[in-house]
């Protein structure tokens, strides 16, 4: 498994005269300036490129599932979604009834693995937070409570953490 993989979901679908997706590359036609390659376009390469028509199940199976299953072997993993407001981050994480988000798919696979492996004891810690305007909000906190910003701290091992951003869970609906 690679240390860091980057996948993009392009939304809305690209305007063919301006940009295009091909395999793991995005080609951007530069109308205003000529890029260094002198060909009138810039190429961006990623581990995976998904169109707006991609299903969350595709994204989960290609990008997230290996992180989830790796975590059952003690490997830490992070799913980090980045984009402007309305770009589809929440949809990718939470999904809809006919297209489950990667979060629910992750929990289903985690609990299936735990239930099948009776020889190990697992402790699941889940964090789910949002960074918005340089403030951190705990998304596991009940939404009826006022959202307070969380502070990021550094421990003696130079690892970063934020207080109250994880919950111990024992059933999938938690």
Automatic annotation (TrEMBL):
<comment type="similarity">
    <text>Belongs to the TRAFAC class myosin-kinesin ATPase superfamily. Kinesin family.</text>
</comment>
<keyword id="KW-0493">Microtubule</keyword>
<dbReference type="GO" id="GO:0003777">
    <property type="term" value="F:microtubule motor activity"/>
</dbReference>
<keyword id="KW-0505">Motor protein</keyword>
<keyword id="KW-0547">Nucleotide-binding</keyword>
<dbReference type="InterPro" id="IPR027417">
    <property type="entry name" value="P-loop_NTPase"/>
</dbReference>
<dbReference type="Pfam" id="PF00225">
    <property type="entry name" value="Kinesin"/>
</dbReference>
<protein>
    <recommendedName>
        <fullName>Kinesin motor domain-containing protein</fullName>
    </recommendedName>
</protein>
<dbReference type="GO" id="GO:0008017">
    <property type="term" value="F:microtubule binding"/>
</dbReference>
<keyword id="KW-0175">Coiled coil</keyword>
<feature type="domain" description="Kinesin motor">
    <location>
        <begin position="3"/>
        <end position="174"/>
    </location>
</feature>
<dbReference type="InterPro" id="IPR036961">
    <property type="entry name" value="Kinesin_motor_dom_sf"/>
</dbReference>
<dbReference type="GO" id="GO:0005874">
    <property type="term" value="C:microtubule"/>
</dbReference>
<dbReference type="InterPro" id="IPR001752">
    <property type="entry name" value="Kinesin_motor_dom"/>
</dbReference>
<dbReference type="InterPro" id="IPR027640">
    <property type="entry name" value="Kinesin-like_fam"/>
</dbReference>
<keyword id="KW-0067">ATP-binding</keyword>
<dbReference type="GO" id="GO:0005524">
    <property type="term" value="F:ATP binding"/>
</dbReference>
<feature type="binding site">
    <location>
        <begin position="83"/>
        <end position="90"/>
    </location>
    <ligand>
        <name>ATP</name>
    </ligand>
</feature>
<dbReference type="GO" id="GO:0007018">
    <property type="term" value="P:microtubule-based movement"/>
</dbReference>
